[in-house]
Design a protein that fits this description.
The protein is mainly alpha-helical and 131 residues long.
């Protein structure tokens, strides 16, 4: 569980650093200040993070798994809104969507570990030759 929590926190940092409704995000910073070396460096760091998370998520879950994870988490959010536990006022919907994106990325990064715990089977990817 600790490993998933770390992956979820890393995904939250990645997603919220890229964009969020507050003024404190890369997109607003880079567009407000122009494109210099600091913005380019930060953009490359974020791009590397997105590529790592998206690649791992796509490899472990596939398109169907991503769709199912999104549907599960989206319907859970809908239920929480319906029960009144979450508010749809103001920017709350944007924050919920960002957390859901981070959750899908964290599930994708953690899926091999989750699968091994649930099934006792180790997932081996034999389709790639990295040599």
């Amino acid at each position: 569980m600790f490993g998933f929590t770390l992956r979820f926190l890393a995904a939250l940092v990645l997603v919220f650093a890229t964009w969020n409704p507050s003024p404190w995000n890369y997109v607003r910073w880079a567009t407000a200040t122009g494109w210099g070396a600091p913005e380019a460096f930060a953009g490359v760091v974020l791009l590397i993070g997105w590529v790592l998370f998206l690649h791992a998520t796509l490899e472990s879950l596939g398109f169907l798994g991503i769709a199912l994870a999104g549907a599960f988490l989206g319907s859970l959010a809908w239920l929480l809104f319906d029960l009144g536990w979450l508010s749809a006022q103001g920017e709350a919907m944007a924050y919920v969507a960002l957390v859901l994106i981070a959750a899908v990325l964290a599930i994708g990064m953690s899926w091999a570990h989750i699968w091994r715990r649930m099934s006792g089977q180790v997932e081996v990817d034999e389709g790639h030759d990295h040599g």
